[in-house]
Records
---
Amino acid sequence: MRSINELPECPVATTICLIGSKWKLLIIRNLMKRPWRFNELLRSLVGVSQKVLTTNLRELEKDGIIYRKDYKVNPPRVEYGMPQLGLKLTNLLDIMASFGDFYKSQI
């Protein structure tokens, strides 16, 4: 996790710093439902490259928003999911989804 000194003073800016990219929000959206394996996420996120997905997963894990579980088997099996800290974003994503639906109904 980042130290308090590495984060912006503004709480909105802090949230944007942690989850403010298109791919991070879509990764979080998927992981809120259930744990996913890497290739499942890669297939579900149309347009994301393997490198970008890997980078975003590592950043989210480093910040404690998601977890990575390595089953230490051969062939490798890794799963990504949401710890309690990450699940605190559920209301935020629900509000974003509601606004998206509302916006589309207005145009």
---
Amino acid sequence: MPDNRMEAAIIYESHLPDALRRAIVYAGNDGFVASLPQLLHARLGASFDNIIWNTWFTANSEECVARTPQGNWVLVAVHGGGIFATPERIRNLYHASVDRKSKLGFTGLFAGKISERENRDIVDGRLPDGRQIPVYAFSDVERGIADPPRTYAVVMDLEIAQNAHTGYVDFDDLRDDPLMTVRAGGGEQAAAYLDKAKSRGNTDAIGCWHSLNEIEPDQPQSCICTMYGSPGGERARIYAPEGIDHLRGVHTDFGIRGDTGMINMGRYVAVAPRSAATGVRDLSFGA
């Protein structure tokens, strides 16, 4: 219908698979659950007082450590889906044996172990639901993908990803960082996002994290990415595990993380066409 427009909703639940289930229902067949590049794109178009900058969001993006048929270890970043893109797959992970020898349980860093078939399929761009998605090389993303699809994968050598920066990183150092480039969906968007984020607090560093140098060797696995934010540039009080409270501002924002444990809450952004004519959002209710 001509009055339809794409409308976003924040979907939060204290249980990750429940949040994903509700987000998928909201998106329906014609919408989508926002990936990490899409979340960063939204931040670029929003003012700093918008909630998109001021809290954390679960991205519909995964970083999978996998082995190619030739025996090479790679990082497969999947934007717009992945192995753990359904509530059922996450629940299967939760219900797996907690024994460290379990083939489908958690890793020691609470990423999700993946099966040999899932490993083989994701390298080839096949999702668990049977869909075939485009697979790009890192060099493709570095140059920029024109009109990228909603769901796609990027494959890069694991050693390159392991050598990427992690922690609170100088903005200038992240401009050419390969993992930041992949996470942003391209070098141009990465640079634009870093410029805007830096202008928010007039600071020199931002969080960009991975644990790829600490993962269990020879274990295919995947982890869902998270985008963090701090309230309005104000300093927010948090508590360290040892009980000492600290103050932090936007300059110590957690930033983008690919190392967040999968036992977690979920806050997705779901986007779907909605009709202004049949909803109450744009109605006037008087004084």
